Amino acid sequence: QVQLVESGGGLVQAGGSLRLSCAASGRTFRSTVMGWFRQAPGKEREFVASISWSGGSTFYADSVKGRFTTSTDNAKNTVYLQMNSLKPEDTAVYYCNAAPTLVALIKSNHWGQGTQVTVSS
C-alpha cells in the first residue's frame, strides 16, 4: 500500500504558476511510475503527466505539453508537478497516483485526497 498526499493547489490568475507536490510513503518499491491526473466538475478524470522514479521517462497530455513539468525528488519520496502558463481550463482537482506501470497507473482506482487548482481569468 502506497500512501499519497497531494498539496500545493490554490487559486491563481491565468498565466500564473503553481507547483504541486505528491508525497509518497509505504510500499513505494513497487510503484515504478508516478502520475498526475485531474478532474474538473462534470468531466471524467484526465491523465496529465507521469514520470518514473528513475527519471528516465516522462509523458504529458497534449493539453499540458510545454506548460507542465513533472519531476521527482527520490530522497524525499516526492513527485512534483510544476504548472506554468496556467489557463482557466486547467481548473480541476489534481490527484497523484503510483503504480508498477503506466498502464496500471491509468487503470488504478486508488487515489489521494487531491488538491484543488483554480485558475481565474
Please write out the topology.
Elements: E1 2-7, E2 10-13, E3 18-26, E4 33-39, E5 46-52, E6 58-60, E7 68-73, E8 78-83, E9 92-99, H1 102-107, E10 115-120
Parallel strand pairs: 2-10
Antiparallel strand pairs: 1-3, 3-8, 4-5, 4-9, 5-6, 7-8, 9-10
Can you put this structure into words, describing what you see?
- The structure is a single chain.
- The protein contains one helix and ten strands, in the order E-E-E-E-E-E-E-E-E-H-E.
- It is mostly beta strands and 121 residues long.
- It has a six-stranded mixed beta sheet. Strands 1-3-8-7 form a four-stranded antiparallel beta sheet, with no helix packed on it.
Helical amount among residues, as a percent range? under 10%
The helix/strand order is EEEEEEEEEHE
Q: Can you tell me the overall shape?
A: globular
Number of strands: 10
Radius of gyration: 13 Å
N- to C-terminal distance:
39 Å
- Helix count, DSSP H or I runs of 4 or more residues: 1
Low-confidence stretches: none
Q: From the helix content, strand content and strand pairing, which structural class follows?
A: mainly beta
Adjacency order of strands in the biggest sheet:
2-10-9-4-5-6
Main sheet overview: 6 strands, mixed
Mean pLDDT: 93
Strand content: over 45%
